[in-house]
Amino acid sequence: MAAAVRQLDVAVATAVAAEPNLGARLKNLVRKGLLAVTDQALFSGANFLVNILLARWLTAAEYGAYSLAFAVFLLLAALHGAILIEPMMVFGAGKYYSRFPRYLRVLIGGHFRLMLPSSLLLLGGAFFLARRYSIEASDAFLGLLIGAAAILLFWLVRRAFYVLLQPAYGVLSGALYFVLLIGGVIALKLTNHLTIVTAFIAMGAAGLVASAIMLTRFVPAWRTAAHDPTLKDVTGDHWRYGRWALATALIGWFPGHIYYALLPAWLGLEGAGGLRALMNFVMPVLQAISALTMLLLPTLVRDRAQGGTRKMNRTMLLFLALFCGGAVVYLAGLWIFRGSVFQIFYGGKYGEYAGWPLFLTALLPLGTCASAVLGDGLRALERPDSIFWCYAGSMLGCVAVGIPLSAAIGISGALLGLIASSAISVALMVWLYRKSLRQEGKA
User: Using CA atoms, how far apart are residues 74 and 382, in angstroms rounded to an integer?
Assistant: First the structure.
């Protein structure tokens, strides 16, 4: 811990010496970063609490079915993000910044067009899973079918405020979502209506109400906005950027979530529930990293435009030190109190995973810290193709290491596969980022 703090101090001191005005810039970044973390604490805290409550209140098989459906939802979210959200973080902070309200309106229309075929696929998945696994799995997919569009609309709206570097609005949206979701789930439990289906409906309802309230911020501008950019303009830009991001999302989902689909075949739905129960413990730190990267990408885009790659590198160093230092502190606390966390969160359920599986789980955020910073660096250089190849290597690690190990030793094998995939991805990102910097310098 002390070594990590000293490294952070050295990094900050070096960066400040290299740029006289960096002190004020760092103060502004810290302020916005704290707002972003607060927003993410509310947003991810709501999802974290829901996962904990469902793990306590549902049977192991029901929670496993929920975990399987949620893994599929994350695939849908990754595709949605690749086509809409990730390009918005780049083009919204650059090309369309002066016309952002109209641009956002076009994206919301695209969101609903995208959700129509996705909903049909989820409906087909519900019928298939009823035959393949159980009625619990079918119910989970029906609930996801009802709630997915509203949940993803909220994800899109939240990110819009980070494009504008206005995380205070994100805090407000996170607070609304937290109150609505937690209140809704508790109300369902108290009235004996809490099921897998109603849990997803509660998520969708909370997202829809919060989105409607936050979008009033843009309504006056929509009324006066010119008809520019057009749907054709936005579609062309998003497809040019997003086709690589889309392919990356597909293969990026695979090494992190395929185990939720495979473990039920070997261990029953309870296997998927056990893996999700372990991952719940590291979700707070993963979500904190996600919150700060919402500020990192548009910041790096502006750094590149204003000061070139050297300025980008200084910002990346600061974020990497912050991420890794926070992850080490959090994970040390998780391991120290490992004897009581299962009792506190799950009422004693899933306690069989308190040893080796929890230790492996605790290592995962360190790889996420590095890949988050390096990945946003490649995105800021407009190299989503490089990220694709990094995740391709990660998927190969999953196929070669993770799937055989998970088949042999279950959940611990899946966790070892996740670690192997992360290590391969980070190594490739380092190499490709350096290669992109050399190409940028020659240009």
Answer: 24
pLDDT of residue 227: 66
Sorted by sequence, the CB contacts under 8 Å of residue 312 that are 6+ apart come out as 300, 303, 304, 377, 380
Instruction: Give the up-direction half-sphere exposure of residue 404: CA atoms within 13 A in the CB hemisphere.
Output: 6
**Predicted TM-score (pTM) of this structure:** 0.76
Q: How many CB atoms lie within 10 A of CB 259?
A: 25
Q: With a cut of 70, which residues of the chain have pLDDT below it? A: 1-33, 36, 125-127, 129-133, 219-227, 291, 294, 441-443
Q: Please name the amino acid found at residue 264.
A: P
Expressed as residue numbers, the domain containing 191 is: 2-442
Q: Tokens 């996170």 label which residue?
A: 174
Residue pLDDT, tens place only, 329-386: 888 888 888 878 888 888 878 888 888 899 899 889 888 899 999 998 998 888 877 8
% pLDDT > 90, the chain: 24
Rounded to an integer, what distance in angstroms lies between the CA atom of residue 66 and that of residue 62?
A: 6
Structure tokens at 43: 């947003």
Contacts of 417 (CB under 8 A, 6+ apart): 255, 259, 397, 398, 401, 402, 403, 405, 406
- Tell me the helices (H) and strands (E) count for the chain, helix number first: 16, 0
Angstrom distances, CA of residue 53 to CA of 49, 71, 73, 188, 240: 6, 18, 19, 12, 42
CB 320 within 8 A of CB 370: yes
**CA 114 – CA 108 distance, rounded (Å):** 10
Question: For the chain, how many structural domains are there in total?
Answer: 1
The runs of H, that is alpha helices, within 164-230 are: 167-190, 196-215, 219-224
- CA gap 331, 141 in Å, rounded: 33
Amino acid at 300: L
Q: What is the pLDDT of residue 203?
A: 95
Residue 94 three-state SS: coil
Q: How many whole angstroms separate alpha carbon 157 and alpha carbon 154?
A: 5
Sign of the torsion formed by the C-alpha atoms of 164, 169, 174 and 176: negative
Supply the DSSP string of 322-350, one letter for each residue. Answer: HHHHHHHHHHHHHHHTHHHHHHHHHTTTT
Residue with tokens 């508790």: 186
Are 181 and 50 within 8 A, CB to CB?
yes
Q: What share of the chain is helix, strand, coil (3-state, %, to 5)?
A: 90, 0, 10
